[in-house]
Amino acid sequence: MEELKEIARGPIDVLIVGSGSREHALLWKFAQSEMVGEIHMAPGNGGTIGHNVGIQADDIRGLSEFARDTGCITVVGPDRPLELGIVDYFMERGLPIFGPTRNQAMIEWSKIHSKETMRELGIPTAQWTWFTDKDPRRAMQHASLRGGNVVVKADGLADGKGVYVCSSVEESNAAINAVLVEKKFGRAGERMLIEEKLVGRELSVFALCNGIDAVYLGSAVDYKRLLDGDRGPNTGGMGSYSPVGWAGDELISWIMQRMVIPTVRHTRFSGFLYLGLMITENGPMLIEYNARFGDPEAQAIMPRLNIDLLAEVDAIARGEIRAFHRYGNIFNNLGSCCVVLTSEGYARELGGAQRRIHGIEEAQGDALIFHAGTTRSDGELFAEPGKRVMSIVGVGSDASDARARAYAAAEKISFEGMHYRKEIGVQRTRVKA
Ligand code: AMP
Ligand code: GLY
């Protein structure tokens, strides 16, 4: 299969859609490809200046015109453009794009659809029932029969905020009220799930999929809560590490054979498939599918990949089916640890102002720095308020080396209101009963 590389076309120009650290990490990885040409970011951030093209991630028409005019392939980072059907739109116009169609991505943007898919494929998951905004009282009754020990979820995309892990009837009533009555998530909350609360260790597993087959692209632990000790509000992710020592080959192979491959065959999924799992006493249970790479998992996994990811993504975007197995080692032997720095107000809906960032040059010697909520003005770098500002990724010979590097770098960076968790990679996240 190696010859395929030889006959592949010349430099690959690529447009990465998105503006977070995940997209910056993809840029960093693609830039190492032997085949890379120009890399463009839409809209990008303060760390990707020189690549940014000033088109928003949900401006599908604008993105398609740019891709058509430059002849680049397009890779989609975030969930929203996938739900809007960016891949369908490009495909109808003969533009090469890497990612799932709107239908394939439905396993992420409708939680009820994802549960139905799991049921059809016999994939273990938490027990569930769904309700509509017509019957909040029946939903409350259902939750109270379980002592309020349930998880309440808006059906649609809610920027990672539509999930309530409850421990009392008071909490479950409040959650159901927020979703079905107050309509806090708009149309995403017209339907709602109530799930059994699972106990175990959370794990994120990734695969590269071409519509018929999939290859394992690594796993990571994501720290979702804002504060150390898994306290405080849920966030988009405060840090991650990879590889995950306790997730051995046997477990991963089971997840690939019993969950990932059947899902890819059933949905003809193309793109990055991300499984959010709870590893329980009764084995792995699938919490959710995502139809994209994770953030902050991408930042920890990209530095571990041995493969030419851009060449793979290009082939899939062009509809070529290449055998994945020609790679001996998908991963190098390194460990990585990603620490996310946030600005004032993040996850707390408070105000704040732009703050000047200091110490980036000094920190770069120790770790990789992938930007998110940053802007550059008059040559100075600023943190935007209420954002994940950047990901600091230590890469080392093992987990503790990686962690030491990440924190050495994080300590050199400062801006007013900066916050980060101090125990990424130390204390794993475990959901308590
Ligand atoms: P999601 O937005 O679906 O990723 O859910 C956010 C977080 O809620 C997950 O990462 C878990 O920590 C938690 N969660 C979701 N579903 C369950 C469940 N059935 N049991 C326990 N925790 C859950
Ligand atoms: N790591 C959480 C997410 O990407 O949704």
Structural summary, described in words:
- With 433 residues, the protein is an alpha+beta fold.
- The protein has four domains: 11-101, Rossmann fold (3-Layer(aba) Sandwich), CATH 3.40.50.20; 127-196, Dna Ligase, domain 1 (2-Layer Sandwich); 199-332, D-amino Acid Aminotransferase, Chain A, domain 1 (2-Layer Sandwich), CATH 3.30.470; 335-431, Glycinamide Ribonucleotide Synthetase, Chain A, domain 4.
- Helices cover 29% and strands 28% of the residues.
- It has 14 helices and 22 strands.
- The chain has helices at residues 3-7, 21-30, 60-70, 79-83, 86-92, 106-109, 111-121, 136-144, 169-181, 249-267, 297-301, 309-317, 360-363, 399-412; strands at 12-18, 36-43, 73-76, 97-98, 128-132, 150-154, 163-165, 191-196, 200-210, 214-222, 225-227, 231-234, 239-242, 270-280, 283-290, 335-342, 355-356, 368-371, 374-377, 380-383, 388-396, 430-431.
- The strands form five sheets. Strands 9, 10, 13, 14, 15, 16, 18, 21 and 22 form a nine-stranded antiparallel β-sheet that branches.
- A hairpin with an 8-residue loop joins β6 and β7 (163-165).
- α8 (136-144) packs antiparallel against α9.
- Bound molecules: adenosine monophosphate (AMP) and glycine.
- Adenosine monophosphate binds next to β7 and β15.
